[in-house]
Specification:
Blueprint: H1 5-29, H2 44-65, H3 69-96, H4 101-122, H5 127-134, H6 163-186, E1 194-199, H7 206-211, H8 213-219, E2 222-228, E3 237-242, E4 245-250
Parallel strand pairs: 1-2
Antiparallel strand pairs: 1-4, 3-4
């Protein structure tokens, strides 16, 4: 890799991203008990991030074994920045700030366990910050070492790979991106709430969309979200397509006809 000042600045920003995410997690540890949840307590986003992490473990390990160091570094970089920080941490805030103690405990455990494993994958590339952060995290059940340098390398758990959760979460994320893009195109302020109808004619995703209702309402900033299998479009509405879904947004409150 050739040296460029811009690359140094970019990885400085990446280091800040890891540090701030870790601070957020450790601050929440002060208020939430750290306890391993039952499998049934895991939400869609928990199963999604766990599945993605296992696939990243496999990808990073395989590339390191073949001395593809740049590809291995890029895999863990993309996972930390785009999936763990930009999506998963933001999604867990709904539960961390809720009154449901079980949901809060599940969210903080998944945050710590994901961060701990991620730091081990990142350690060969960035040993100082990973050791420093790891020392401030509670130990998982299988960890007895006093330093991250002596921890076992993460191993893939095939039982935790959940392609269905990845597909469902991918659709939820695409819905949120589509709505955000629509806001930008129509010059609608992010603070402006509006009604939204998600139509799944097949009915196959209704339960998944209902489970992700809180995510969609918060991150697409909608109100009166309707999830239905009725294909009838309301009058004077904007139609959007995501996967096999149709999204309708009534325009009465957004446009002066």
């Amino acid at each position: 890799m050739r040296y460029y000042d811009s690359k140094v600045r970019a990885y400085r920003d990446f280091t800040n991203k890891i540090w701030n995410a870790s601070r957020f997690i450790t601050m929440n540890l002060e208020n939430v008990p750290f306890e391993k949840p039952q499998e049934a307590d895991l939400s869609l986003d928990d199963r999604w991030i766990r599945s993605r992490l296992n696939k990243v473990i496999e990808e990073v390990s395989n590339n390191l074994e073949h001395f593809e160091l740049g590809i291995a570094a890029l895999k863990i970089y993309d996972f930390i920045w785009s999936e763990f920080c930009d999506w998963y941490i933001e999604l867990t805030k709904i539960r961390l700030y809720s009154d449901d103690e079980k949901q809060r405990k599940t969210a903080i455990y998944m945050l710590v366990s994901t961060l701990s494993t991620t730091l081990k994958l990142l350690h060969p590339f960035m040993p100082f910050i990973t050791e420093e952060i790891w020392q401030h995290l509670p130990r998982l059940e299988e960890e007895t070492q006093e330093t991250i340098m002596l921890c076992n390398w993460p191993q893939v758990n095939p039982q935790q790979i959940d392609d269905a959760a990845e597909e469902q979460m991918g659709i939820v994320m695409e819905i949120i991106r589509t709505i955000r893009n629509m806001r930008a195109e129509m010059n609608i302020k992010n603070t402006k709430k509006f009604d939204m109808i998600i139509c799944d004619e097949s009915g196959s995703l209704l339960s998944s969309l209902e489970a992700a209702r809180a995510y969609i309402e918060r991150f697409a900033n909608t109100q009166n979200l309707t999830i239905t299998d009725n294909p009838e479009a309301p009058a004077k509405s904007k139609a959007l397509a995501v996967a096999n879904l149709r999204i309708y947004i009534p325009l009465d409150e957004l446009i002066d006809f």
